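Here's my example:
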Amino acid sequence: MRRLILDKTELVVEELERIGVDKNAYSLFVNKTKTFAVKFEGLSCAQANILKQTALICGADVAIPKIAYRGSKKRRIAVILFANIREIEKIEKRLIEQPWMDSLRKQLYSLLETKPAPTLKIGRKQIAFNRTYIMGVINITPDSFYSGSRYTTRSMVEKVATAMEQEGADFIDIGAESTRPGAESLETKEEIKRLKKILPGVVRSIDIPLSVDTYKADVAEFAIECGASIINDISGLSFDKRMPKIIAKNRIGVVLMHIKGTPKTMQVQPEYDDLMAEIHHHFKQKIDFAVESGIKQNRIIIDPGLGFGKRLEDNYEIMRRLQELTIFDRPIMVGHSRKSFIGKPFNLDPEERLEGTLGVEALLIKNGASILRVHDVHEAKKVAVLIDKIER
């Protein structure tokens, strides 16, 4: 006997072919290998019990809280369904006969849909994320946490941006304000002043999309006038009420990040009761708000905000469970490069964290990252190409 690791459809099919299974049965067995643990919230006790009974009949199971058995009419509860695709198909069909379960049935049906890779519209260009994209980081601030990313002269920034493009960067992200833990907010005038010297020349020197890292609407407006096509907002449109209007009006891309607090306060004893639930609810709310504000959904990127109001173990949990965020069908950008959670286990400074950064990159790609925001484009690109060949 030997255990098979069949985590891809083509691997299942290969093994079925080897033992001579009828081709008409392939989809049946493929669906049995795709297992899910799905959490439903806000169910009545009656709904929870019906779902459990139905799941058991179909060969699956549902974990429900003890209170559900007492049948409280007012109490709303959460449950977890454990099932494979084949079992979910059976459950969904049975629930058609019970109209009061229709909302839950529709959510189950969405798991059965085959979804293409997420796409992003930048200007008139449509990007399909069927590979990993690399975003090169350039900081035009003297106090960035990593010295290797600090560039303050126009000629140097243009040279670095051009080099990053040649090394395989798909985007360049420029920031004029440090958002490292404990950083003070920069005056808007000073942020624009720094960008004014740099942006026009960079836009002329590269052909790939330019992103500007800012949470201030006035800065975003200036950056867009200079040719920026993405605004990377660490606040997720929260710090400046005018930001959604600026993004929508100019029809550009936007990165919505999760952060707890502000750069100055975010690492002062951050705490979470349920980290992934909070991040999930955050993105649900932020995406809905962005769309209601006139921003097209196909222009939105999400970023879980590693290091932004996160404890060491929080960062590790996000990386392990990153795939949970693919439910939003939006590109997931991750900024992990040379951050403290990579150096802490070995007591390494940012300058010594390249190997750890590249190791984490491989894990992030495997777990669903679409865009990696990195300082070391040349090395990151090589890892991305290799892992894409293995995983995608």
